[in-house]
Amino acid sequence: MPSNHVLYAAPLSYFSGKARSYLHYKQVGFEERFADRNVYQDIILPRIGYPVMPVTILDNDQAIQDTSELIDYFENTSHSPSATPPTPKQAFVSALLELYGDEWLVIPAMHYRWVYNKDFALSEFGKVTAPHAPKAEQLKAAEKSSAMFQAVVPMLGATPQMAPAIEKSYINFLHEFNTHLEHHDFLLGGKPCTGDFGLVGPLYAHLYRDPFSGDLMKKEAPLVAKWVERMIAIPFNVEGDYLANDEIPPTLYPLLKRQMSEQGPCLLDLVEKLADFKTTNKDQAIPRTIGMHDFTVEGETGKRIIIPYTQWMLQRALTPLSKLDDKDRTKIDNLLNDINGQTLKGLTIKAPVTRENHKLIWA
Length: 363
Hints:
It is built from 16 helices and 8 strands. By secondary structure, the chain is α+β, with helices and mostly antiparallel strands. The chain has a domain at 88-249: Glutathione S-transferase Yfyf (Class Pi), Chain A, domain 2 (Up-down Bundle). Strand 5 (292-297) and strand 6 form a beta hairpin. Helix 4 (88-103) packs parallel to helix 10 (194-205), helix 5 packs across helix 6 (118-129) and helix 11 crosses helix 12 (222-232). The longest helix is centred in the middle third of the chain and has 19 residues, at 163-181. The chain starts with a strand and ends with a strand.
């Protein structure tokens, strides 16, 4: 489909996988261009203000940096095929699992990349940083350009001490997702939702495409690997629809319970910590991180950074609930009870945030 939309991206990039998959599903005509060093210098930094990928430049010259904002834009301007379930429980679960993929699966994704796939990752970074240089120069440039990513791995909680628990949790997640896919092609039935696109970011770019973790996925959860292949296929083939009657498949409950047990406590603590930060830093811009807090997976507890952006994603899931009637809100409350997410019921966001000009600001 002809279009002047341009996606500046790269195969190794977590969120490039999410954006690319969604745009193909949405049947949005676009051209993908490799986000090399020249693109960063000439396009991304002048338009966005900081180095990041992917970035989409629409045919109206609007720049969209955030992949959830990209989905919002095309869901609002091009309705078919939609990735937004029209019923409240499915829409809520879709948003929850987009949050999970975007903001929590980054832990195993970064762990496996930099512990087991480092040589491959450096080779890929070299292609982005110095695509036309000899191999030795590419690797030297890659060490420099990837240093920030390598440094953030322990900050995310993926320390050597937490590695066994992180790997156990991820493999259990793969098994749970694989069981679900024995019955359904996507999270909510026969076509993908925003939750699928949230999951495909880490599950494709890091955990399928990187060789060690790709082999692990194919061995431990072959149906998850097949789901990834469906999500990245061109053309994107969809033959079904969401389950009828706003049903959440029972096979999805183990994934949601895992999210609530692992990510849930960190979400609640983030809401509290960000409110405290605003109280004592009223005139300060919102930083990318505001300290550290505990997180627990598979019974092991470590420390990880507190990321204010994650609250924006949580707000995307919770805000629509305030508009529901009593009957639909009761259905959501019952669902939260079933997935051990009771603490999200009626949660008050004390210091809400929003995004403006590619940055997080106080709402």
